[in-house]
């Protein structure tokens, strides 16, 4: 065994009703004038956060959107300057947390992230921003939130189907961590635990979205999977989703959910030891199990259902192969085109 393990420094507060501890967390960091960021859909939760922070809540910016467009960040930057804030609280999914990270990148202000989906961005030093339609990703330690407050209560309102696709988005981080070039035993432990927690929790959330036990398990799994994403490199699945999302403007978690079984089926023959690990959690056919789980959560089946045109499959294949990157199985045009075609049709993985 030969590996390097590096942990990202961040403090995690996990539980139910934990936003009541936001004031204490801000005090620990010495912050007195916080900017609260959210999407327009989550203004209520942003107000809830503000009420917890009391006089420490200086300003609110509730215009975060998917893929962190630079124009939105620039508008938020003017609020940062005008309100002379000394820290950022991002409440929401990857969109709100992405904006908080973009502000931290430009200002080095401390961040408290309050995640309400399972996307996992809060655990990574990665920032993806879009400018003129192109998405550029960078990794920088300034971007990693100082504190993450996971409050199970804030996830109860995440609609069941979105909970399902967001959970599968998290599982995708853990699956690729298992066969990452820089994988290591600790990250693999977290990955398997995270996949297990989410696969158990998601059907329960479909049955009863208010089931706090299932919600807690899903959020716990999401934390672990997000940690995996922040710790090791990703491969073909994330590359494909990045390409498809950026080039064809497809929704983030739904795209991950559709592509994951196919990307895993592509890679498994090259990583028999990972196949054995996943069989322990997902059963004898891990790729098929993830396809079935996507069905259980009522996710869209094929990329065509997300609005991608069939004529774009060749372009997607070319783009996926344009900048070579590491993957456990060699990247070949014909099998990748077949993979995307099956994902487009919504067929089971092969
Ligand atoms: P999102 O943040 O856009 O949330 C989807 C929708 O659900 C939004 O309208 C949001 O307001 C709403 N929502 C979120 N939580 C809710 C709740 N608890 N109750 C009710 N509504 C709720 O989507 P996402 O999938 O969390 O994040 C996607 C974005 O995050 C993408 O831009 C993606 O690139 C980015 N991302 C980045 C990283 C990273 O490490 N940099 C990791 C994962 C995702």
TrEMBL record:
Gene3D superfamilies: 3.40.50.1970, Dehydroquinate synthase-like - alpha domain
Keyword Ribonucleoprotein applies: no
This protein's record includes keyword Ribosomal protein: no
GO function term, MF aspect, one: alcohol dehydrogenase (NAD+) activity
Domain Alcohol dehydrogenase iron-type/glycerol dehydrogenase GldA, residue spans: 9-151
Domain annotation Fe-containing alcohol dehydrogenase-like C-terminal: ranges: 165-344
Domain of life: Bacteria
Keyword annotations: NAD, Oxidoreductase
Family, as annotated: Belongs to the iron-containing alcohol dehydrogenase family.
Protein name: Maleylacetate reductase
Native organism taxonomy: Bacteria, Pseudomonadati, Pseudomonadota, Alphaproteobacteria, Sphingomonadales
